[in-house]
Specification:
With 491 residues, this protein is α/β, with parallel strands linked by helices. The strands form 3 sheets. It has a 7-stranded mixed sheet with strand order 3-9-8-7-6-4-5, with helices on both faces. Strand 1 and strand 2 form a beta hairpin. Helix 5 packs across helix 7, helix 13 packs across helix 14 and helix 13 runs antiparallel to helix 15. The longest helix has 36 residues. It starts with a strand and ends with a helix.
Length: 491
């Protein structure tokens, strides 16, 4: 590194040094992708281990990049959980793929802040086209218009804010809330926590959220929505928005969209569809049944950064009334006015942040690299892996499935003969989960379904194969039947 001209004493990486280190980093990246299976899936460090290795104070002088990169390898990597490991079966995936990574490298290099058309016309127009592609690929009606948000949480907040403003003729934005109007929002007990967070941030208050009972398959019951709306109307509340989930976080249950939509339509309620994880499955024509009734929806979101092999963050948000979305967020100070503003999309006005990353580029790279058929082939293989795992669970006398398996999440538990006490089974399965994850050979998580502790395996990682799923089942079965787990359950 050399001193930057005009800034004595300040080291500046030259372009040649940048080139050298960039090649070194790319070599490491390629090695990482090839060798990620050799890492423990979940980090084995304890709380405070990493911060204890980082100096308390910043360096007074610049350090060689080689030293910094060595510290990355030796200090940071051991503290990372490896989401791109093919035996990562936890949560929902945050997948990537080589074309997506390459696109992220380019966006980082250009360093563009793509808040409006004039700040980078290609970023705006590529985003517009990519959202058209995604709408076509997932079978959404052409009446929807799309924009890329960072996460589904943000998209849901945008939906509730837009519903609020349209219902009040944009008076809340202008004047604040009136105490005379009390709005309500409806979702199932299985809805994602981001719904409640959005209701609170939107100023409606957590008490405005009605969490409705679910059926045996953990999907929302339309009759419960109808009853809740009638009850709230009788008490002077204004039903504002309902959230239907396509692929709940706990068990990937599919809410009955058409019946819910008919109810919302009768009452003038904004219907938002949260398909954050499951929306990618809509690339398959045989899965379009999940959105039967989408014509009743006002907004829809899914995350390519979950199951469509695109680096986090990239959330596809579609809205039927784009004008109301823009009016909810648009603020036009003099310094943001441009001659083209009436002829282009300025996506800074389509969501919460003013600044925007060039997220469309990685979508473009991924869709073109895989092709629609290539994406479908990989998604179908993941669905098949989950079915094979669920068959293994169903055929084992000492395991049981705890929910249907419409997609790639399998909820199950160890249930040996003669052990029926609920607390004992919970303790036993919690010990099993801990033992499995400490092994470093896989990573799964848990949920609770009907109050029961459920192990949860999601077979959707970009590079997972049948061999990884089979190995996971062998490890789960062997670990469950070990004396340690049985002893833990008997304590």
């Amino acid at each position: 590194m050399h001193e930057e001209p005009g800034h004595p004493g300040v080291p500046m990486m030259t372009n040649q040094e940048f080139r050298t280190y960039a090649h070194e980093l790319v070599d490491w990246m390629a090695d990482y992708l090839q060798e990620v299976e050799h890492f423990p899936v979940r980090s084995t460090v304890g709380p405070g281990d990493i911060i204890g290795r980082i100096p308390l104070h910043p360096p007074p002088a610049g350090e060689p990049f080689g030293t910094i990169f060595a510290d990355f390898r030796n200090t940071i990597v051991p503290g990372m959980t490896h989401w791109q490991h093919p035996s990562f079966f936890a949560y929902f995936p945050a997948n990537n793929s080589p074309p997506s990574i390459l696109a992220e490298m380019l966006t980082a290099t250009m360093g563009a802040q793509c808040m409006s058309w004039v700040t980078s016309p290609a970023a705006t127009e590529l985003e517009e086209r990519m959202m058209q592609w995604l709408g076509e690929m997932t079978g959404l009606p052409p009446s929807f218009t799309g924009v890329i948000q960072d996460t589904a949480s943000t998209a849901t907040l945008c939906a509730i804010l837009t519903a609020r403003e349209r219902r009040t003729e944009f008076r809340v934005n202008a004047e604040g809330f009136s105490r005379e109007r009390r709005f309500t929002v409806y979702a199932s007990t299985e809805t994602h926590s981001s719904i409640e967070r959005a209701v609170k941030i939107a100023g409606l208050g957590a008490a405005a959220l009605r969490k409705l009972p679910v059926d045996a398959g953990f999907a929302m019951v339309p009759e419960e929505l109808e009853r809740a709306i009638a009850r709230d109307l009788s008490l002077g509340f204004e039903p504002l928005c309902a959230v239907a989930t396509i692929g709940t976080t706990g068990s990937t249950a599919i809410d009955p969209l058409k019946r819910l939509g008919e109810i919302c339509s009768r009452h003038g309620i904004w219907l938002h569809v949260d398909a954050a994880y499951a929306g990618t499955a809509l690339l398959l024509p045989e899965k379009r049944w999940m959105i039967e009734g989408i014509e009743f929806a006002d907004s829809f979101v899914f995350n390519p950064h979950k199951w469509m092999f695109t680096n986090f963050d990239c959330s596809a948000y579609f809205v039927r009334d784009a004008a109301s979305l823009v009016r909810t967020f648009e603020i036009l100070p003099e310094y943001l006015k441009t001659p083209e503003q009436d002829r282009v999309h300025n996506y800074r006005d389509w969501g919460i942040p003013l600044g925007r990353r060039f997220r469309a580029l990685k979508l473009w790279f991924v869709i073109r690299s895989f092709g629609v058929e290539g994406l479908r082939e990989r998604i179908r293989s993941h669905l098949a892996f989950a079915q094979s795992f669920s068959r293994n669970v169903g055929e084992a006398s000492d395991f049981e499935l705890l929910a249907p398996v419409p997609l790639t999440a399998v909820c199950f538990r160890y249930h040996p003969a003669g052990t029926d006490d609920p607390a004992t089974l919970d303790t036993m399965n919690s010990a099993l989960l801990d033992a499995l994850n400490k092994s470093g050979r896989l990573f799964i998580t848990h949920t609770r379904l009907n109050g029961r502790f459920a192990l949860r395996l999601v077979a959707s990682q970009t590079n997972v194969t049948q061999q990884h799923v089979d190995a996971a089942w062998d490890l789960i079965r062997a670990t469950a039947r070990s004396k340690e787990v049985l002893h833990e359950g008997a304590r």
